[in-house]
Amino acid sequence: MRHVHRHLRPVLLASLIVALTAALMPAARPAPAAPPLAIAFSAHTTGGEQWSIDLSVVDGDDVNVRQTSAGLRLRDARPSAARLAHRPGGVAEGILHSAPRTLTGPATRVRADIAARVAPGATLETHVRGWRMSGGWTEWRATTAVFDQPVTRVQTRLVLTARDSRGVVTVRAVRLTADAVAAVTAANPGRTYRVFATRIGLVGEVTANGRIIQPRDHFVALPSRRGLAPNNTGDYTARVCTTSGSRCTYAPVWDVGPWNTRDDYWNPSAVRENWKNLPQGRPQAQAAYQDGYNGGRDQFGRVVLNPAGVDLADGTFWDGLLLTTNAWVDVAYLWTGSGPHGVVGDGPLNIRTGASTTYPSRGLAARYANVPIQCYVAGQTVAGPFRTTNRWDRLATGQYVSNAYISAVYGGAVPRC
User: Fold this and answer.
1) Could you give the CA distance from residue 330 to residue 311 in angstroms, rounded to a whole number?
2) Integer distance in angstroms from the first to the last C-alpha of the chain?
3) What domains can you pick out in the chain, each with its CATH number?
4) pTM of the predicted protein model
5) Closest Cα partner for 85 from 6, 16, 203?
6) Does the structure show a pLDDT above 50 at 147?
């Protein structure tokens, strides 16, 4: 059953980051005659490694953007009828992911200079993430971004929005600078929180990262873009378990919601984007629903109708966890952890209580999910899409997956159990 709050599922990203935020916010009253805002390169960005994004490359992980003679723009600046039906006042949105850049040396800070024109009612945001030396991507950060540990690769994401076809954003150039400064404290490694889960449904609709939702799909949504993975990747994967621990499922984060879009509640207050006075691990929607926080309303002013902190696609909900109704679950935000991770290359893959297909299944790992591997054992030989092997990888929950279905491992060598 489709839930009420999903009819109004928020997808709006707010204004441009750092010093540009106030300048790009829509005016309180319409100002159609106002000229577009010009954003130019600053003159103070010196030192460090510098490079520019190739805005002409628009490919499969990009959403609703195109290159024009003037610069990068939204392909279609009109909000879809479905988007307007789900949330009145909805916006058209586009995302461009740059190719990751391998740095000449480790860095802990990335700054962006942008040459762009942003019309009234439109917004532009620039985000970056880094590949940790210990393996795995950091969360997306608004630039200027300071990472908790050195990174060796950097990827940039541009997010363009418009309320209507007049809200044109034109990005002419983006220049990045990476250097090393003192690190900041990040979220505790591998934090797990008990939150309320709801079912997404919405088959045929488009997620925030551009995926068309399939029947019995396997992914999750969290109420912040900081943990949003590009389509067909598991760079940000959540492990969701029933409160009894009898079932667990690993699924990539491919959508934003429920309720909020800037509530990375798994982070400490020093890092958390909004609602910094709430305890770490407590979603704003839960506080609004249970305690009347923020007048019982979400960031968009809507009355919160349930305490949801995670949304589950139908396959994750029904097949992975065997849920029949909304429920409390234990969610681990796996990109905050460390150590070896395996990429599930084909799935959904059964996770079993032992190193053989004769052992019971206790859940599923979605295709593209990045699963933390503690160690490996010898077990039943399995012929899979990547190799024929008797190696079984033990996950952090003490359950097992066949290494025949793991396409890659990063974050260090996997020891024998």
Assistant:
1) 13
2) 43
3) 7-179 (2.60.120), 192-336 (2.40.40.10), 341-410 (2.30.30)
4) 0.75
5) 6
6) yes
